Structure formats: structure tokens, C-alpha cells
């Protein structure tokens, strides 16, 4: 998960009962495998003393920042969203490295073409 991120900032009040997602996400970020996937990812934890709602801010390697409300979004959902966005970033990078434009635009007429499909041949129809 961290391989797609350059920075993670987790803000919460330790006495707030709504910090479960922050604590779980922090544990996932501190896991050995997560740290090994991107050692340069900055992890910042800000422990607050006010009634500020817990939140998780992530900055992707392309500079895009997203802020998640940790009171209403479970850690697994945040992780899943990061992984989905990361796969999109990998695909974009792959196309750019190959010299292709991004996003890939498929002409309308190609979208409407019929696809004949493939039909499996029976064993007796195959030539040997």
C-alpha cells in the first residue's frame, strides 16, 4: 500500500473513542512489509488534544493528496481505495513509459464494433 504513497499523515485525539480507524491504519503503515515496500514514504502522526475529528491524509507519488474522514471510513476501506488508485497510477505510468497518451481514448466506432468471439472446436474437428 505504501509503495503508491509519498506521505501519510494521521491526526487523532487519543482519548477520542472514534480513533479505531486511525489506530488500525497506523498499525498497517508500521508493518514491516509496508515499510519495506516504500522506505521513503513519510509517516506523520499528530496527536491532538482538541475535539478535532480523526482524519487520515495521504499524498500519492504523483502529488495528489486525499483526506479521509476516519470517523466514518474504516481502515480497510481506506486501504482498498489507496490500492485501487495505486493500480491506476501504475497503469498510467506504464502507458507513459511506452510512449502512449494517457488517458487512452478508444474511438467511438471501435466501441460499437461487434466481437465475433471464439468458438471451441470439438476434438474430432481438429486436424492432426
From TrEMBL:
Name of the protein described by the UniProt record: Large ribosomal subunit protein mL53
Domain of life per record: Eukaryota
Gene Ontology terms: cellular component: mitochondrial large ribosomal subunit
Localization annotation: Mitochondrion
Keyword Ribosomal protein: yes
Pfam families in alphabetical order: MRP_L53
Region (Disordered): 107-128
Keyword Ribosomal protein among UniProt keywords: yes
Family: Belongs to the mitochondrion-specific ribosomal protein mL53 family.
Lineage: Eukaryota, Viridiplantae, Streptophyta, Embryophyta, Tracheophyta
Sorted UniProt keywords: Mitochondrion, Ribonucleoprotein, Ribosomal protein, Transit peptide
Organism: Tagetes erecta (African marigold)
